[in-house]
């Protein structure tokens, strides 16, 4: 009888230990074809692959998967760093991340190296794209941020025995806002961002509805406006080019570790002579796995 009681006692200890030691996930791999959220030809969001590629993300603290998986790191304010490669610019590497401080501040950063970057006017040997934003949480729902986007182009050439090296760099201010309202496992996550310069304007808005802890729906709309070197009338829409994109996607988590994301987007580009590229549909199919 005593041996039976001892077995029950040991079993209860083992069960309590196993149920309290919850599994945590610090590694995340995202891979697939097309990312309609960031498929913007003149976007300043360089951290996610636009055509084909993959990302590896490391969380400094483990995720439990108990909160809505789509934005768990934001809700729990857990910092992360991510490495991204894509085939659009020849496996251009990108390093990005988000770091949360104790005073309600967090830093978003993104650095991308593009070899043989093809700009609007001429080919460059390489470019470095950077994006830094400091966000401040006003309360549990609202977050406001400000920062800059930097573009550094370097072109080297050799002709008639002379070496030529042209460097072009400029910075654009950016502002963004985020509203998150989650009740239980459902709610809204809305992101809005604007980047502007003398000859450039980019606006994007992402609305995510979390239907449950495992399913979310996202709608993204973006507008980019830029002009050529001969046009300095930024407000005259008869010149320059306008790029518009709208997309929708659905992400479903089969477990705390794996999800699939399916979406469709529409692209449109208006040129200087008002001849536009017809609406071009693009499709998204991505997978995500945490371990």
TrEMBL record:
Keywords: Signal
Signal peptide boundaries: 1-21
The UniProt record lists the keyword Signal: yes
Protein name: MipA/OmpV family protein
Organism of this sequence: Psychrosphaera algicola
Upper taxonomic lineage: Bacteria, Pseudomonadati, Pseudomonadota, Gammaproteobacteria, Alteromonadales
């Amino acid at each position: 009888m005593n041996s039976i009681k001892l077995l029950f006692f040991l079993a209860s200890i083992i069960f309590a230990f196993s149920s309290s030691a919850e599994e945590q996930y610090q590694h995340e791999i995202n891979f697939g074809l097309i990312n309609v959220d960031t498929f913007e030809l003149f976007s300043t969001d360089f951290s996610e692959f636009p055509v084909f590629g993959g990302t590896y993300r490391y969380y400094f603290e483990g995720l439990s998967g108990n909160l809505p998986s789509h934005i768990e790191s934001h809700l729990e304010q857990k910092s992360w760093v991510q490495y991204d490669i894509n085939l659009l610019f020849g496996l251009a590497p990108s390093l990005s991340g988000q770091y949360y401080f104790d005073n309600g501040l967090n830093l978003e950063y993104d650095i991308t190296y593009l070899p043989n970057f093809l700009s609007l006017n001429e080919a460059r040997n390489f470019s470095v794209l950077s994006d830094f934003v400091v966000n401040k949480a006003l309360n549990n729902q609202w977050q406001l941020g400000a920062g800059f986007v930097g573009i550094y182009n370097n072109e080297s050439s050799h002709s008639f025995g002379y070496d030529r090296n042209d460097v072009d760099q400029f910075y654009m201010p950016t502002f963004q806002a985020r509203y998150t309202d989650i009740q239980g496992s459902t709610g809204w996550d809305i992101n809005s961002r604007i980047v502007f310069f003398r000859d450039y304007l980019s606006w994007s808005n992402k609305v995510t509805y979390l239907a449950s802890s495992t399913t979310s729906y996202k709608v993204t709309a973006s507008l980019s406006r830029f002009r050529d070197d001969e046009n300095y009338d930024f407000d005259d829409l008869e010149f320059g080019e306008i790029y518009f994109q709208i997309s929708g996607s659905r992400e479903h988590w089969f477990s705390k570790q794996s999800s699939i994301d399916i979406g469709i987007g529409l692209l449109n580009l208006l040129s200087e002579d008002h001849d536009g590229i017809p609406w071009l549909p693009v499709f998204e199919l991505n997978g995500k796995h945490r371990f």
